[in-house]
From TrEMBL:
Source taxonomy: Bacteria, Pseudomonadati, Pseudomonadota, Gammaproteobacteria, Orbales
The protein's required cofactors: FMN; Mg(2+)
Organism from which the protein derives: Gilliamella apis
Entry-linked HAMAP family: CoaBC
Pfam short name (any one): Flavoprotein
One GO CC annotation: phosphopantothenoylcysteine decarboxylase complex
Record protein name field: Coenzyme A biosynthesis bifunctional protein CoaBC
Cofactor note: Binds 1 FMN per subunit.
Amino acid sequence: MMSLSGKNILLGITGGIAAYKCPDLVRHLKKAGAQVRVVLTESASHFVAPMTLQAVSGNAVSKELFDPTAELSMSHIELAKWADLVLIAPATANIIAKMANGIADDLLSTICLATPAKIVIAPAMNQQMYKAAATQQNLATLESRNTLVLGPDEGFQACGDIGPGRMVEPTTIVENINNYFLANSELAGTTITVTAGPTIEELDPVRYISNYSSGKMGFAIAKAAAEMGATVNLISGPVNLTTPNNVNRINVKSAKQMYDEALVLAEKSAIFISCAAVADYRAETIAKNKIKKTDDSNELVIKLVKNPDIVASIAGLKEHRPFVVGFAAETNDVKTYALKKLTTKNLDLICANDVSDHNIGFNSDQNALTLYWQNGEQTLPLSSKQQLAKQLLQAVITRYKASHDEKKN
Ligand code: PMT
């Protein structure tokens, strides 16, 4: 699974002939979904043009430590904080030596010192320089500080020598970065099933009962979970949204169909998040033909029967019960109703969604939630659904781990 979606990669390019491969490297990083910002050292700019890198990355290229225009928008500290990962490719003997010794005398070396992010380097230099005791010692120092060193490859060198010192190929670098994020992602190896959107309950071939759910909140949760390394199933009612990368989407229409799919997948999941706005009732019978207006009565009575409660059924599983998260969209007495659902549906956590404010909740791009669990609560203030989904998952992971620890003791 190749996905760097949502990841901010700062690519530092230093002065080696392999810098000519960097536009291709940026292209591969972007293709995998990453946001890329490039920092060039002075000598790197002799090997590759900033314009090219700006065009492929879609972002301005930074060069100067004291560039007043760059300082206004993104200083070295901001760049250092922005990055989820700093990649230096090609990494010359010089930058390796500076990093090993904590020297910060230009933008890139300063960022290396200032960043809390993982640093990955792809050394590239003459084979003799690579074998030099100083370089080997500097590399060992960096590895001991948790820097990931990729390569170098062996072979013909631009200077005519043969030996170790060629930069590893861009595709290999991207693969290694992807593996790093996968191995370190909080939800690696965890399967999460999310329900999203409305259900529709047919009345006749042309009419149905439904609600205003757009699916945006549930899709945002699925996307964030996949970016955190989870294996994600997304059971979706009819919505007009694109499936997030690396998400297994199952389309359903009715609550009954959602129930059937959810029960199968929930048993295979560690976490089940029920964000869908499921219709509580469906027509007892779906008319075979279009229901006709009659002249003799002002009323039409359609008998509704209860749909199965999906999230309560999953929370009631005796075996393979996942950690169960529900939502409660309410217009009044939000806390009271949410707490009632937490208990009656036997949930591990509930997300109270006050939908009396029409700017949040159904079909909006932003939302705000209050999470409740037994003896605890947490407010997630107004933000984009994407941002909120990440915060929600962090809270879910914390509660999920705590519930495991409680079961062990
Ligand atoms: O899709 P969006 O436009 O982005 O809007 C997001 C949302 C407002 C739909 C979402 O944030 C939300 O609040 N979802 C829950 C909607 C709701 O009305 O829930 P409820 O109070 O009817 O149900 C409580 C819980 O039981 C929910 O987790 C629901 O998924 C679940 N349920 C309900 C009925 C049923 N038959 N089966 C269920 O599993």
